[in-house]
UniProtKB/TrEMBL annotation:
The chain crosses the membrane at residues 350-370. The keyword Transmembrane helix applies. This is Uncharacterized protein. Residues 140-160 are annotated as: Disordered. Residues 143-159 have a biased composition (Pro residues). InterPro entries: DUF247_pln.
Amino acid sequence: MVSIGPYHYDKDKLKLGEALKLKLTQQFFRDREPQIEVLHDKIFKEIGELRGCYDEEPTNKYDDEALAWMLFVDGCSVLRYIHCYADKKFDELKIKNHEIAFVRQDLFLLENQLSFQVLKLLMSDNGMEKIEKFILENWRKQPTPPPPQQKPQPPPPQQQPEIAPCHLLELFRTELVGKPSKQDENTGNKEEDWQSFRDVTVLRAAGIHLKRSKTNCLHDVSFTYHLIFGYLSLPPLVVDDSTKAKFLNLIACEMCPEFDNKFEVTSYICFLDSLIDQADDVKKLRKKHILHNFLGSDEEVAKLFNEIATDLVPSFDIYRHVKADIQKHYDDIGKAWMAEFVHNHFSSPWTFIAFIAAVAAFAFSVVPYIKKDQK
């Protein structure tokens, strides 16, 4: 729909998108036309550095003036869209609802990324606040209220990174991943025998229950014990028709040779895929308000994560302590046997009531014989 940056610029099928960007740029300068030349000059003065943000092949065919104009229009239109989206003033964009949705998806395509330096040169004093609000609206907003006993807390504000993000997708990834836990930071050399085929259904039978994490950050995964049961906490996630594209682009971003990272998104997808083997696993995650399914059937959600995770290799350090604790619980024969007994015989209130009734009936039938023996 919309091309941002030089990679797909001037393609015939995206001509309508160019007209849309000009429309948004005009809105961006409404009531402040004198700033047009000032902001354009800012871009032009930095064009040498901005050109270096892209590969040579897509930018060589444009001289400095043409490239500066391209980045100027792209930056202004992106900021205009983000401002209206963050403030929920969609009507001010003067575009149709499906165009709003398509532009939002296009902004998170890896090949559509605009150098963040362009946005910094063009944005106003509250521009960064609008961008962060836009990202939060696109990822952490929950469509349904969580259970009262597990109301998620807003994630702690991220400290401004020492190095500015390269582009919007990288900033999106930083907010999504969150700060690593102390356990993740202590990598160590302990080996684990993690069995990736143990899905939610299998773990549930071993006495491992699901809980919703307090934040939406991908690092907010933990495992705790209570008596014979274990509790795996996972961050809530909205699954809709944009989820696959977002994750694939985030994963592609992590695969870029020049991007130094720990493959947190890749590792999260692999971990989630190990928990989801069939529709019933998705159903259990939905019931605990961990997955919010706006995609379709539970089968479609299971298939979605299985497809995204194909051929991915996770970091062995991410979630290593969680995996080790799960394995330890699973290998505890006593706990596993007791948990399986409870799961098989007391999986519903009715089976528990029936058990109590049977015990009571047995007790009442035995009491008369005990009294006779005492006599």
